[in-house]
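Format notes (please read before filing issues)

Several people have asked whether sequences and structure tokens are stored in separate files. They are not. Every record keeps both together, in the order shown below: the sequence lines, then the token lines. Line labels are part of the format and must not be stripped during preprocessing.
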Amino acid sequence: MNEFVPSNSLINPFRKMEFAIQNTWDSNPVDHDPIRISFSDGKSGLRMEVSGPFFNDPAAPPGEPGIAFPGLWNYEVVESFFLDSTKENYLEVELCPHGQHLILLLSGVGNAFYQQLPIYFTTTKSGDRWTGEAVIPWTYFPPNVDKMNSYAIHGSGAARTYEALYPIPKADILEGQQPNLYGKHLKALYADRYPLYVS
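Then the structure lines:
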């Protein structure tokens, strides 16, 4: 695996970047306080902090908090994708308010070559709110990350809700199109519309 070396603009200094997921995947406004995500320098890796409403739907995955859990995308989760658009390699980070996580490295459409990588991740729940903090080692990132997108997913059955930091514009949605947030259609989901590292 290639080692990710952050650019000088990240190290000296690495500006904290803060985002709010205010739309569903298809550009409708969310009907609740948005999930908020921040990225900052965690020294040994990228610190990702999440805060927002705790829906508790679906119920907690049957896995131990702090440990990787396969299939986490089927639960309440916040995801961030970090793409090297020159080679279509990307890192997928999934964080659950119940404390489980899933880290995958993929090459091309859904082809995971590393799964269930370990990270530092803790969560705190207080009533209908939660916060989480993860540190993702720099070595997990593809060498030329230049794009990103983040998603928040919750709900069960017909009430399953998919929210996107950079949603598909309404004019680009095809009739009958459904959300697909798992790296199979990065371009269609506009994960390539925002540069991760801003000067």
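For reference, the curators noted about this record: Helices lie at 8-11. Residues 8-11 form the longest helix (4 residues).
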